[in-house]
Amino acid sequence: MTLTFPPGFLWGAASAAYQVEGAAQEDGRTPSIWDTFSHTPGRVLAGDTGDVAVDHYHRFREDVRLMAELNLGAYRFSVSWSRVQPTGRGPAVQRGLDFYRSLVDELLGAGIQPVVTLYHWDLPQELETRFPSGSAAGGGWPERETAERFAEYAGIVAEALGDRVEFWTTLNEPWCSAFLGYGSGVHAPGRTERLAPLRAAHHLNLAHGLGAQALRAALPARAQIAISLNPAVVRPLSDKPEDLDAARRIDALANRVFTGPLLRGAYPSDLIKDTASITDWSFVRDGDLAVIKHPLDALGINYYTPSLVSAATDKEGSPARHDGHGDSAHSPWPGSEGVAFHQTPGERTEMGWTIDPTGLHDLLMRYSREAPGVPLYITENGAAFDDKPDAEGAVHDPRRIDYLQAHLAVAHQAIADGADLRGYFLWSLMDNFEWAYGYSKRFGAVYVDYPTQARVPKSSARWYARVARTGELPAV
C-alpha cells in the first residue's frame, strides 16, 4: 500500500558547516575546536581534515540547484560560529555573514526553506583554550561564560538573517558535544574527564535557553525556535533488575539530562544521585532552570540506531558508546561506567550501527507523550554505505533506499498513532567529512568525488526526490 503523508509535510536534507563548507581560513574565519582536533595527529582517520571538505563555501549555488532538482522543501544547515565571530566574542565579520546571506537568498530563490542550526559542534577555538578566572582545566562548554557568549552570537546571526529565515535550531546533539567532547574524547576538543561532561551538558542547556531568548528578542513573532537532540533508545538486555537499572542510568545520561530541564525545568533526581560522587551540581545557579525551560516551537529528533545495555560483569570490557563511533578507553557515561553495551542483532550499516526502524517509532511516541503540544521534526536520519560509481559513473545504493523506506514507513505509522510529526530531514544531502572517520564513511544522497568535487546524485537521491515531490511513500 502506498503511504501518503499529510499535506504540508516538510521534506528536507541536512548538513553541518565543518563537514561541508571548507574555506577554513578564508574571509576572516579562524579555527574551531574541530580544526584543531582534526589537525592533531591520531585524532581523525587517515589524518583527514575539513579544510576543504566538499567546498560548499564556493559551490553553494551548484548545491542549491541540486537541492531543487531533488524537490527539497527545506535545507537544514549550520552556521560556523568562528566564521561569523572569530574569537567567539565581539563584533561579527560581515564577510562571514555575507556567505550565509547569499546561501539563504539562493535557497529562497529556489523555493527551498532555509533551516538554520546555530551550533553543530564547531566551537571557536579561542573559547576552548581561554582559561577563565578560577578554572584549571580550560575553557569551552564546561565554563558558564561559553553559554553567555553563545547568546551574543545567536543574536548576531538572528539580526543578519531573521528577516528571511523562519525556522531556527539552537543546538545540534548537545549530548555529543558534552559527553564525546569532554568525556570519551573521541570528538573535539578531545578531553577525557568525569566532571567536565556534566558541567558541559548544563552549560549547553543554558546556552539553548539564553540563545532562545536572544533569538526571540531579534526575530519576528512567526519564527520557530527548536533544538535538535539525539535521544537514545535504551533497551535492557533482560528484565533482570540490574539490567533495568543499567537502562535507567543510561537513559538519564543520554536523554533526561536534556529533556528534564528543557521540558520540565529540573534535572532528574536519579541522575543527581547517580553522579553524586562526581559533583553536587552546584554549577546550576538560581534561575538557570527557568531560562532553560524556554517554550519550544518544535523539537528535533535525530535517530540512527538503538542501544542494548546490561549491568557489566567481570568478563565484559569497558562500555562502548551508544552512537557507535568506535571504542574509547574513556567512558562518556560519568557515574555509570559499570554499564555494558551490547551489539544489537540485525543488518548493519558501514558505521556498524544496527538498522532498526522501530527505535524511531519509539522516540516519536515517547516525545509525543513527554512534550505534548510541541510539533516534532526528524532532523537527522540516514545511513552510511560503501557507495561506489559503476563503469558508467552512476551510483546505485539500493540498501539506502531500503533504509529510508523502512524509517519513513514507521514515521508514517507514528503520525497515524497520534504523533504531531511535521517533517523529515535526510542525513545527509552529500557525502562529506564524517568527523573522526574523515572521508571514509558516505552518508550522502549525493555522491562526491573528493579529488574533483564532482557531485553525482545516487539512486536514493532520485528515489527521495519522488517521495518529496508526491508526499507518497511507494509500496514495497
Explain this structure.
- This protein is of the alpha/beta class.
- It has one domain (3-473): Alpha-Beta Barrel (TIM Barrel), CATH 3.20.20.80.
- It is built from 15 helices and 15 strands.
- The chain is globular, with a radius of gyration of 21 Å.
- Mean pLDDT is 95; it is low at 316-326.
Characteristic key phrases:
glycosidase, 476 residues, beta-glucosidase activity, 8-stranded parallel β-barrel, globular, TIM Barrel, single chain, 15% strand, 15 helices, hydrolase, alpha/beta
**Percent range for helical residues?**
25-40%
Number of domains: 1
Could you name the CATH class?
A: Alpha Beta
Number of discrete helical segments: 15
CATH architecture: Alpha-Beta Barrel
Distance between the first and last residues' Cα? 8 Å
SSE order, as H and E?
EEHHHEHHEHHEHHEEHHHEEEHEHEEEHE
Query: Which range does the strand content fall in?
Result: 5-15%
Q: What's this, in brief?
A:
With 476 residues, the protein is an alpha/beta fold. It is 38% helix and 15% strand. The chain has one domain (3-473): Glycosidases (TIM Barrel), CATH 3.20.20.
Layout of strands and helices, then pairs:
Elements: E1 3-4, E2 10-14, H1 17-20, H2 33-38, H3 56-69, E3 74-78, H4 81-84, H5 94-109, E4 113-119, H6 125-129, H7 144-161, E5 167-172, H8 174-184, H9 195-218, E6 224-229, E7 234-236, H10 241-264, H11 269-274, H12 288-292, E8 298-302, E9 307-311, E10 339-342, H13 358-370, E11 376-380, H14 398-416, E12 421-427, E13 446-449, E14 454-457, H15 459-470, E15 472-473
Parallel strand pairs: 2-3, 2-12, 3-4, 4-5, 5-6, 6-8, 7-9, 8-11, 11-12
Antiparallel strand pairs: 1-15, 9-10, 13-14
Helix pairs in contact: 3-5, 7-9, 8-9, 9-10, 13-14, 14-15
Catalytic activity: Hydrolysis of terminal, non-reducing beta-D-glucosyl residues with release of beta-D-glucose
Organism: Streptomyces iranensis
Biased composition (Basic and acidic residues): 313-328
